[in-house]
Specification:
This protein is of the alpha/beta class. Helices cover about 40% and strands about 25% of the residues. The chain has 3 helices and 7 strands; from the N terminus they run βααββββαββ. Strands 5-4-3-7-6 form a 5-stranded mixed sheet. A two-stranded parallel sheet has the order 1-2. Helix 1 (about 10-40) runs antiparallel to helix 2. The radius of gyration is 22 Å and the shape is elongated.
Length: about 160
Amino acid sequence: MVDAEKRFPMTANGFNSLKNELRLLKEVERPAIVEAIVEARSHGDLSENAEYHAAKERQSFIEGRISELEEKINQAQIIDISTISGDQVKFGATVTLVNTVTDGVVTYQIVGSDEADVKKGLLSITSPLARALIGKKVDDEVEITVPSGTQSYAIQKIEYV
């Protein structure tokens, strides 16, 4: 049984992405790299065989990633966002923010660290901005320090979709 303290929250979409990547690595990448190693071995002297060494390095990467994904999947705490509601920011919330200096508007969904992608509007629960937002309500302001200075945002909207 996985220790409750070592569980990592993630959305169902994030969990499915990890499972899909694991399936791809096991069913496609692993067999292909084994084939590449066999082919490279047939070329003779392994000590000077660049194809062989590259294939072995790739195999090592794939096996490490498979291990990592299996661990993350086993430790995942899948949060069903459709069951969450309320007027405070929590994991899974989609939050619309207004930069109090520039009036620029951004929208982020707070997700698990393995599914974060700021360019897609997916903000890691462990990020400074997400941590500052947790527990806040519409019209609350948060301030975070970033490499370029301090940013200040007002919460315009909170949704659970």
